[in-house]
């Protein structure tokens, strides 16, 4: 895999580069005294200036005027109730001049007081320097650190059939660390570009990398088989069999017997040895949504030679997974929750997981029953699995 850095494309740099113009100061009355005793705290892409507030009964706010990026004039205001102002959006770690004004209720400004600030490395550069890019199923995997938990966009571009750069994906986040995948490409060498943008329209450079995506396919459900052991839960009824778990019919599903207890295991045969990349499950909806036997926390284990006694011998954990309710509401399901579940919940399998033919679900907690509950059971309507069986 070849990786190198080039300056961000010119058309990206032009985005959002508009000037803010200051209008004339209007009003009457004597101008207030300026702020004094200024002190600077330099932060990542930000500067905090503290000061002594002038003694003026008509004082309304303190205003800072600065140029965080060449050609862009920005103003920040702070109430007279507090003795500091925070300036954000600096594009580089270098020296900037800031002018501070005290402004009264007639919008009359004091004489400016100038001070120099020198912000630390902006978050877009910090995140950019942390990027790790690797081949993934159908595309690439991008890991990053965002220590200041700044709102950022990680933009991914690639070349189209004519060689022009086109947008592939945009990942919006303020998480401290995470990874995400860009998919949909064949297992052929492809060039990707990754850059960072913040809410102030500051851009990092572009990281250019050439890699070959890992082959990804939709695993053939007609090859899936019931591989449960005698110790594993049986079907609830002939209308809720394990075969209905992979029949591409969301009106029917798999439901174990009730009161089998948690955790519970059940085993399926994929019909081929495959390295899973991701999978999607559909809950039982209606009044059962985020409740009843819909699983909340579970593990997937893989094996090529399961122990004949049904034990966990010869099984390797593929990953741990958790169903998330978008709203976080404990007692009701919002429209967003319903739409999220009805679209199917997708889960990413760790890239370092192995290839296996047999898959064991180990359900630890259901939305309607905690781990250790003797009344626990399981139901889902459908599962779809992607991976590489080559």
Automatic annotation (TrEMBL):
**Which PROSITE patterns does this entry report, sorted A to Z?**
PROKAR_LIPOPROTEIN
Q: Entry's Gene3D superfamilies?
A: Galactose-binding domain-like (2.60.120.260)
Q: Where is the DUF5126 domain?
A: 120-222
Pfam families linked to this entry? DUF4959, DUF5000, DUF5126
Which InterPro entries does this UniProt record tie to the protein? DUF4959, DUF5000, DUF5126, Galactose-bd-like_sf
Annotated DUF4959 domain residues:
16-119
DUF5000 domain ranges (all copies): 246-387
Q: What is this protein called?
A: Uncharacterized protein
Source lineage: Bacteria, Pseudomonadati, Bacteroidota, Chitinophagia, Chitinophagales
């Amino acid at each position: 895999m070849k990786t190198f850095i080039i300056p961000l494309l010119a058309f990206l740099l032009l985005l959002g580069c508009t000037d803010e113009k200051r209008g004339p100061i209007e009003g009457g009355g004597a101008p207030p005294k300026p702020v004094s005793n200024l002190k600077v705290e330099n932060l990542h892409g930000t500067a905090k200036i503290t000061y002594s507030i002038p003694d003026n009964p008509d004082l309304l706010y303190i205003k800072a005027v600065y140029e965080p990026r060449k050609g862009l004039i920005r103003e920040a205001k702070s109430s007279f109730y507090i003795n500091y102002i925070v300036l954000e959006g600096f594009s580089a770690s270098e020296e900037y001049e800031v002018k501070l004004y005290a402004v009264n209720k007639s919008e009359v400004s004091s004489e400016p007081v100038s001070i120099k600030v020198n912000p630390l490395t902006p978050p877009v550069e910090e995140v950019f320097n942390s990027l790790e890019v690797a081949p993934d199923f159908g595309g690439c995997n991008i890991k990053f650190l965002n220590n200041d938990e700044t709102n950022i966009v990680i933009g991914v571009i690639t070349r189209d059939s004519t060689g022009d750069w086109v947008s592939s994906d945009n990942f919006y986040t303020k998480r401290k660390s995470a990874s995400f995948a860009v998919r949909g490409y064949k297992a052929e060498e492809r060039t990707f570009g990754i850059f960072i943008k913040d809410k102030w329209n500051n851009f990092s450079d572009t990281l250019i990398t050439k890699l070959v995506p890992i082959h990804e396919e939709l695993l053939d459900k007609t090859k899936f088989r019931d591989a449960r052991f005698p110790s594993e839960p049986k079907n609830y009824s002939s209308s809720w069999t394990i075969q209905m778990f992979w029949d591409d019919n969301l009106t029917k599903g798999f439901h174990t017997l009730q009161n089998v207890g948690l955790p519970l295991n059940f085993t399926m045969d994929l019909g081929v040895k495959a390295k899973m990349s991701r999978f999607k499950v559909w809950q039982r909806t209606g009044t059962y949504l985020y409740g009843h036997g819909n699983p909340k926390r579970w593990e997937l284990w893989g094996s090529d030679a399961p122990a004949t006694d049904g034990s966990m011998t010869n099984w390797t954990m593929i990953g741990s997974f958790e169903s998330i309710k978008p709203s976080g509401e404990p007692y009701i399901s919002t429209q967003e929750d319903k739409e999220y579940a009805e679209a199917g919940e997708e889960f990413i399998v760790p890239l370092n997981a192995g290839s296996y033919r047999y898959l064991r679900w180990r359900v630890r907690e259901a939305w309607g029953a905690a781990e250790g509950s003797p009344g626990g059971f399981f139901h889902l309507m459908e599962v779809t699995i992607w991976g590489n069986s080559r």
